[in-house]
Design brief:
This protein has one domain (about 35-200). About 20% of the residues are buried. The two termini are about 15 Å apart. Helix 3 (about 100-130) runs antiparallel to helix 4 (about 130-140) and helix 3 (about 100-130) packs antiparallel against helix 6. It is an all-alpha fold. Helices cover about 70% and strands about 0% of the residues.
């Protein structure tokens, strides 16, 4: 059944559509309509670096001062910090040179971070639900359980779960911004390079 003529097709561009990099569409809900997606990407990358740096400092304290963390966990956190900085540099270069494909590196990295955080949150909830034996089995590979209980009490897996969920939510927000600037650069490249006549012919028309 064909749609009625009175029904508006919101997914169809108008015949006289003109692309504008400053269109309000690129300052959407992900930034509360307060900031364009390009500067928002720099803000997100800065927030990401700060969070990663705080995490690295915390891991160092757990390893060196509290002695409740294995060395490989500290090395892994420092590795994530280094990759975060590297991908942020690629992100900035991609935005400046308007190469959308370079943004995919940052998108892939933040997806991995989200996966790690959600897995950690799931492990924390599972450990608390099953009991102390499961906690020792699951977290014994990452931390020294006795030292963690000494410093943070018996509910320390809950604290890890809260931090993991919060940072995962923050990472999902960053992912939305990085994906937004990726789509923005693709749109700009398409509408800038498409000849106006061919573009007009390629646009769907309302019947």
């Amino acid at each position: 059944m064909s749609p009625s003529k009175a029904e508006k097709k919101v997914d169809v561009l108008p015949a006289n559509f003109i692309f504008s990099p400053d269109d309000p569409f690129y300052s959407g809900p992900v930034t509360c309509d307060l900031m364009h997606i390009k500067p928002a990407s720099y803000v997100a990358a800065t927030v990401e670096f700060v969070v990663m740096l705080i995490g690295a400092i915390a891991f160092y304290k757990f390893y060196e001062v509290n002695q409740s963390l294995d060395k490989w966990m500290l090395v892994s956190m420092l590795g994530l910090l280094a990759v975060s900085v590297f991908t942020s540099i690629i992100l900035a270069y991609g935005i400046i040179t308007e190469q959308a494909n370079l943004i995919r590196t940052k998108i892939s990295f933040i997806q991995i971070v989200i996966l790690i955080l959600m897995t950690l949150a799931f492990v924390s909830i599972t450990a608390m639900s099953v009991g102390i034996e499961m906690t020792n089995s699951l977290f014994g590979l990452f931390v020294k359980v006795a030292e963690m209980e000494r410093d943070f009490g018996p509910l320390w897996p809950f604290n890890i779960g809260v931090v993991a969920f919060f940072t995962a939510a923050l990472a999902i927000w960053m992912h939305a911004i990085y994906k937004g600037v990726y789509d923005f650069l693709l749109d700009k490249d398409y509408f800038s390079n498409a000849p106006s006549i061919e573009l007009a012919k390629s646009l769907p028309r309302e019947e």
